[in-house]
TrEMBL record, chain A:
Source organism phylogeny: Bacteria, Pseudomonadati, Pseudomonadota, Alphaproteobacteria, Hyphomicrobiales
Family matches, as InterPro entries: CobQ/CobB/MinD/ParA_Nub-bd_dom, MinD, MinD_FleN, P-loop_NTPase, ParA/MinD_ATPase
SUPFAM superfamilies, sorted: P-loop containing nucleoside triphosphate hydrolases
Subunit structure: Interacts with MinC and FtsZ.
Protein name: Septum site-determining protein MinD
Function: ATPase required for the correct placement of the division site. Cell division inhibitors MinC and MinD act in concert to form an inhibitor capable of blocking formation of the polar Z ring septums. Rapidly oscillates between the poles of the cell to destabilize FtsZ filaments that have formed before they mature into polar Z rings.
BP GO annotations: division septum assembly; negative regulation of cell division
Annotated GO MF terms: ATP binding; ATP hydrolysis activity
Alphabetic keyword roster: ATP-binding, Cell cycle, Cell division, Nucleotide-binding, Septation
CobQ/CobB/MinD/ParA nucleotide binding domain boundaries: 5-225
Automatic annotation (TrEMBL), chain B:
Annotated source species: Hansschlegelia plantiphila
One of the GO BP terms on file: regulation of division septum assembly
HAMAP family, per the entry: MinE
Transmembrane segments: none
InterPro entries the record matches: MinE, MinE_sf
Family: Belongs to the MinE family.
Protein name: Cell division topological specificity factor
Lineage: Bacteria, Pseudomonadati, Pseudomonadota, Alphaproteobacteria, Hyphomicrobiales
Main function: Prevents the cell division inhibition by proteins MinC and MinD at internal division sites while permitting inhibition at polar sites. This ensures cell division at the proper site by restricting the formation of a division septum at the midpoint of the long axis of the cell.
């Protein structure tokens, strides 16, 4: 049975697309069939972060409107063969999405994949609504920062009222993914701690992704961080989160960079 | 003064935490309780289960808002010896 997951946050720039790519790749590496869908119509970026920007021919809007079929629009990842991307349109606007069209596409994907990961646009408008509409569970990407936490709280409210699952009176599972976390600043008292955010939002924790230059390097290269540098701290944090999504119990830690002596001496390469 | 300031350095995270807690308490009241339906379901089930045998799987609670009218629909299937009696309220 396919699991539909929405990666959402309300606020922009907190790491939704980065997290969608990293979690999608990590899940696919465990042998699961994964499709990541970009719902940010007009401002697509998941293709770029995944390094598939030059392979986009058809997109979600083409499939929703029946101008292309899924086989034509799905882009298979070149590094992990169980990972696919359904890009958003760059030229159309978000009004080109229809409720019926999105539902049909999601249902069709359910027959082909184990995980359907919907990368939500920022904000609380149409695109965000369509991305969360059919979700079985939600990953709320939050930075330890007041405006991000506030927007996450708002999104949690929408997930509990506007999704199909909520309308059926079922519990919508929501998991917190805390990104750009700096344990040293949190310990010093200059950043909200994990427990502060958990207490305020009161949803279970999926993972803590440490602030790291590896995330920018990965997007420079067009590769999910879990593939570009699997031993880096954020990659290990995402890999743990992906295993938790699969139901494994893994101790919650904030990974830190391992100091590699030789790597430090000779391994510096420009990204 | 600067020495005093050094020792009494206030951290900013507690302020963030307090401001958020105050603000969100207010905003949740304005935008409505987030998991109202799920909570209603649990509480309604608990009350009914005290008196009648019900299958938690066979309970549907939905809310709907049309123009100025908001509805709450509760649909509960009750276990009977012959099975199948359905009661809606």
């Amino acid at each position: 049975m396919a699991e539909v997951l929405v990666v959402t946050s309300g606020k922009g720039g907190v790491g939704k697309t980065t997290s969608t790519a990293a979690l999608g790749a990590a899940l696919a590496q465990t042998g699961q069939n994964v499709v990541v869908i970009d719902f940010d119509v007009g401002l697509r970026n998941l293709d770029l972060v995944m390094g598939a920007e030059r392979r986009v021919v058809y997109d979600l809007i083409n499939v929703v409107q029946g101008d292309a079929n899924l086989n034509q629009a799905l882009i298979k990842d070149k590094r992990v063969d169980t990972l696919s991307l359904l890009p958003a349109s760059q030229t159309r606007d978000k009004d080109a999405l229809t409720a019926e069209g999105v539902e049909r596409v999601i249902n069709e994907l359910k027959g082909r994949f184990d995980w359907i990961i919907c990368d939500s646009p920022a904000g609380i408008e149409r695109g965000a609504y369509f991305a969360m509409r059919h979700a079985d569970l939600a990953v709320i990407v939050t930075n330890p920062e007041v405006s991000s936490v506030r927007d996450s709280d708002r999104i949690i409210g929408l997930l509990d009222s506007k999704t199909e699952k909520a309308e059926r009176g079922e519990h919508m599972e929501k998991l917190l993914l805390l990104t750009r976390y700096d344990p040293i600043r949190a310990e010093r008292g200059d950043m909200l701690k994990v427990d502060d955010v958990l207490e305020i939002l009161s949803i279970p924790l999926l993972g803590i992704i440490p602030e790291s230059p590896e995330v920018l390097k990965a997007s420079n290269l067009g590769s999910p961080v879990t593939l570009s540098n699997p031993i880096s701290a954020p990659a290990r944090a995402y890999a743990d989160a992906a295993r938790r999504l699969r139901g494994e119990t893994i101790e919650m830690t904030v990974p830190s960079e391992r100091k590699r002596f030789l790597g430090g001496l000779f391994g510096r390469r420009a990204a | 003064m600067s020495v005093l300031k050094f020792f009494s350095r206030r951290t900013s995270a507690p302020a963030a935490r307090e401001r958020l807690q105050l603000l969100l308490a207010h905003e949740r009241a304005v935008f409505g309780r987030t998991d109202l339906v799920a909570q209603l379901k649990d509480e309604i089930l608990a009350v009914i289960a005290k008196h009648i045998s019900i299958d938690p799987e066979k309970v549907r609670i939905t809310t709907d808002t049309r123009d100025t009218l908001a509805t709450l629909e509760v649909d509960i299937e009750i276990r009977t010896p012959n099975g199948g009696l359905k009661m809606a309220s």
